[in-house]
Amino acid sequence: MLQTVKSQNFEALLGRIATLHLPDGSALQVHIGHLEHTPSAKMRYSERIPFSVELNSLEPTGFVDGLCALELPELGRVQEIFVSRVPPMGRDPQLAYFHISFN
Known about the structure:
Blueprint: H1 7-11, E1 17-21, E2 27-37, E3 51-57, E4 65-72, E5 76-86, E6 97-102
Antiparallel strand pairs: 1-2, 1-4, 2-3, 3-6, 4-5, 5-6
């Protein structure tokens, strides 16, 4: 299923709130903040242009990284998306900031 995810699936969510389903079964409200294409990282036989998505939590969380699920337009609930936490780097340290890469 992950190979069918395209950046267009996230474009409709930009600037919106979504629910990230964490590995422990809990849910975390996140803001879908930024989408970036990285065409130079494209693999030879892949049709998908690599991209990344930045999210931030709406409340403090101890979640660091792991396989999560997220509802995406046209695809429904997509499982096993690896989400990793990134440092706040000048942003609100009470919130959590995350990154998802699709190659």
